[in-house]
UniProtKB/TrEMBL annotation, chain A:
SUPFAM superfamilies for the chain: SpoIIaa-like
Pfam families per the UniProt record, alphabetical: STAS
Signal peptide: none
InterPro entries for this protein: Anti-sigma_ant, STAS_dom, STAS_dom_sf
Similarity remark: Belongs to the anti-sigma-factor antagonist family.
Residues forming coiled coils: none
Domain STAS: 14-110
Protein name: Anti-sigma factor antagonist
Organism: Paeniglutamicibacter psychrophenolicus
TrEMBL record, chain B:
Keywords annotated in UniProt: Glycosyltransferase, Membrane, Transferase, Transmembrane, Transmembrane helix
Protein name: Cellulose synthase (UDP-forming)
Compartments, record wording: Endomembrane system
The species this protein was found in: Paeniglutamicibacter psychrophenolicus
A Gene Ontology molecular function term of the record: cellulose synthase (UDP-forming) activity
Entry EC number(s): 2.4.1.12
Pfam families: Cellulose_synt (PF03552)
Length: 110, 644
């Protein structure tokens, strides 16, 4: 899994390319934790190139959401692929996380 | 063939048992002594249901022939859980765990956070995990919390869980991992066996019936369950439970908060200073924000979005109002300065900074912080699961026996389990009766907690066979109440001559004796000759423990009282025999002896009739044999492996 981030004005985009599974979940959690700690509390995770996600990956996203909220911001997800969408529905995580169609839209209503 | 005989005995037990108990209810009750007659027939009915559930369990006894070869690339984390066990014991297990042949990572999960153990782990190249600061001031959830914490920092596909004293064989993973080739399998449990137990097992530590026919039978119903140690779990299944639990708990807490919000705001309005326009205006804003969240929830908007919006609106409203307040303050300061320049001195008028406004608008300092009811509602309108150390709790935290509760949730989600009947780890059993009783109390409490919180009979997703398999274990922990009646009935007859049965005629014996005989034969046949007497003794002899477990667990679940939880010590306790631990049982034994003597005297003086006296004296002898296990148990001083 390749991780990178870029400031986009009102939010920071985190790109997670590859497989977000039990192996890479702790890495993502730590990565986003650092981004939040460095002062960006509004995060959009771009999942356009995330080809696969398991429940550990989802767990990491929830951990990141908590970190962002505790820092007074929010974490949103964008550009979800079909497999990831299915996992979100299967675990009813779509009740918690809205998936936006693009990173620009994620904080678009503010 | 064995299966045929077992099933035949089950059918015979059913027929003869229903025949006997049916007759007891219909035609044998001594209504003049209903106060003992009805409890006794109820206790007997309890026992019949217990044995029928056992019969149902062994009906589908599954003897597995071994797992297919494991995928060589399957990744595994081996967890050795510890709290306060001696370091030598923990390291002995951890180093044996490191020697397991299938590639894996070994982790010591030290809930005691001991620097010496951290150092030992580092010296041997083993992983070491303790709770982070997220757990400060949060519910710790004992072993379930320890495991949940470790799940978040490790990444293996499978987890082998070992108690600190359970030394694994090097081939434990080779023997068990292959079952997971079936992608629906989430759990493989192996037996718990203890090295430090003599052949006569005075404390009833080995559970040959449970880690044998009972788990094999449950396995046949796809209901073999997790017993906390010596088991391999699929991480994916656990994480799925964690996610589902998270969504459920979050939604529940948000719904509850929204439902409580109207009342909370009304209370706050009453309590608040009626003249303060600031508070009134702020409450208006809060009410509007919550009202919108309520309709958003009904419209199916995601919890993340709606909670974020509520918090943002409330925060903005608070800031505006605090700002207004601060401006008034500033104006006052300036007026004061104008009136008395000298007091202000050279520093000029004090300026309240933006930072101060920010701080004053924060949750704890804002006027909202003073309104606890409203604050509580707003605190619950989050997706952070603020009452827990981490949002995801994959291992169930509803019970002190997290293992059973977790397995049941897995089964309800459609996962499968396996019981692999081969000893692959060797542990240490309690070596004194006090420790043993603490351990049994905890198991029983945990089981009753699961029954009361997530009753298997009503859990969606479980099949009826699975429901009854879980229920069977819970039912067996109610035996303490039946035991009291089984002790009381012969005492009452022998002392007072009151018989709970209308008459002890042939009608009684031709129904009772065949049932009792077939009952014992069933245990012998289904048990394949494993010793079951110890277990039968303890299920009656520890009646105070079982009753205490039921009452404390009920008080815990219904009224939130603490259980008085304690970790089972692994080393033997010092001091002489502790007779005080079994005071109720000693009292019962004395009463039984006195009653038997009194009964014989009554018979000799013609006050009692022979058949009744004989039956009840025999019953007393049986009760004393049951209780006799405790005499040995209290005097037991431990046992070194190898000395038999």
């Amino acid at each position: 899994m390749e991780l990178s981030h870029q400031a986009r004005g009102s939010y920071t985009e985190v790109t997670a390319n590859g497989r977000l599974n039990m192996v890479s979940a702790p890495t993502l959690r730590a990565y986003v934790g650092e981004v939040v700690a460095s002062g960006s509390n509004r995060i959009v995770v771009n999942l356009a190139q995330t080809t696969f996600m398991d429940s550990s990956g989802l767990g990491a996203l929830i951990g990141c959401l908590k970190a962002a909220r505790q820092a007074g911001g929010d974490l949103r997800i964008a550009a979800v692929q079909p497999q990831v969408k299915m996992v979100l529905e299967l675990t009813s995580m779509d009740r918690v996380l809205t998936s936006y169609s693009s990173t620009e839209e994620a904080f678009g209503n503010e | 063939m064995a299966r045929f005989w077992t099933r035949l005995m089950v059918v015979l037990t059913l027929i003869l048992g229903v025949n006997y108990i049916g007759w007891r209810w219909a035609a044998s009750l001594n209504w003049d002594a209903w106060w003992i007659a009805v409890p006794l027939v109820a206790a007997e009915t309890y026992s019949l249901i217990d044995v029928l559930l056992f019969g149902m369990t062994v009906w589908r006894l599954k003897e597995r022939t071994g797992a297919p070869p494991a995928r060589p690339d399957a990744t595994v984390d081996v967890f050795v859980t510890t709290y306060n066990e001696p370091l030598e014991l923990v390291m002995n297990t951890a180093l044996a765990a490191a020697r397991i042949r299938h590639p894996h990572s070994t982790w010591i999960l030290d809930d005691g956070d001991r620097p010496e153990l951290r150092q030992l782990a580092a010296d041997h190249g083993l992983g070491y995990v303790t709770r982070g600061e997220d757990w400060d001031n949060m519910p710790r959830h004992a072993k379930a919390g320890n495991l949940n914490n470790a799940l978040m920092v490790t990444g293996g596909e499978f987890l082998l869980i070992l108690d600190a004293d359970q030394v694994p064989e090097p081939d434990i993973l080779e023997k068990t991992l292959g079952y997971f080739n079936d992608r629906k399998v989430a759990l493989v449990q192996t037996p718990q066996y203890f090295n430090n137990v003599p052949d006569d097992d005075p404390l009833g530590s080995q559970a040959p019936l449970f880690y044998g026919p009972i788990q094999q039978g449950k396995d046949g119903w796809n209901a073999a369950y997790f017993c906390g140690s010596n088991a391999v779990l699929r991480r994916e299944a656990l994480m799925e439970l964690g996610l589902l639990g998270y969504v459920q708990e979050t939604e529940k807490s948000i719904r509850r908060a929204l439902a409580a919000s109207k009342k909370a705001i009304r209370q706050a309005r009453k309590a608040a200073d009626a003249d303060s326009p600031l508070v009134g205006a702020m409450l208006d804003e809060v009410e509007a924000a919550i009202g919108q969240a309520d309709s958003q929830l009904a419209a199916g908007q995601s919890l993340g979005e709606l909670t974020y919006e509520v918090q943002r609106k409330v925060d903005a409203a608070v800031r505006t109002l605090v700002q207004a307040d601060v401006q008034a303050l500033q104006a006052d300061l300036e007026e004061i300065a104008a009136m008395d320049l000298a007091a202000v001195g050279e520093t000029g008028v004090k300026v309240i900074t933006d930072e101060a406004v920010q701080r004053l608008s924060g949750r704890e300092w804002s006027p909202l912080g003073a309104m606890e009811s409203v604050q509580a509602v707003l605190d619950a309108l989050t997706v952070e699961r603020t009452g827990e150390a981490q949002p995801l709790m994959p291992l169930a935290t509803i019970s002190v026996t997290e293992d059973m509760a977790t397995a049941m949730r897995m089964h309800a989600r459609g996962w499968q389990s396996v019981y692999h009947h081969e000893i692959l780890a060797y542990g240490l059993a309690p070596e004194d009766i006090g420790t043993m009783m603490t351990q049994r109390l905890r198991w029983a409490q945990g089981t009753i907690q699961v029954l009361l919180r997530e009753n298997p009979l009503t859990q969606p997703g479980l099949k009826w066979g699975q429901r009854l398999m879980y229920f069977s274990t819970m039912w067996s922990y109610l035996s303490g109440f039946a035991a009291i009646i089984y002790f009381a009935a012969p005492i009452i007859y022998l002392l007072l001559g009151i018989l709970p049965v209308a008459s002890l005629t042939a009608d009684f014996f031709i129904r009772f004796i065949p049932f009792m005989v077939v009952n014992q034969v069933l245990f012998a046949v289904a048990g394949h000759g494993v010793p079951t007497w110890r277990g039968q003794q303890y299920s009656l002899a520890l009646f105070p423990t079982w009753i205490k477990a039921c009452t404390t667990a009920a008080c815990n679940v219904w009224f939130g009282r603490p259980l008085g939880f304690s970790v089972t010590p692994k080393s033997r306790q010092a001091g002489g025999p502790r007779w005080s631990l079994i005071r109720p049982q000693i009292t019962v034994a004395v009463l039984l002896v006195v009653a038997a003597i009194a009964g014989i005297v009554r018979l000799a003086t013609g006050l009692a009739e022979p058949v009744g006296t004989l039956v009840n004296v025999a019953w007393v002898v049986f009760d004393l044999l049951v209780l006799s296990v405790l005499y040995k148990a209290v005097r037991y001083r431990g046992h070194a492996p190898g000395e038999n």
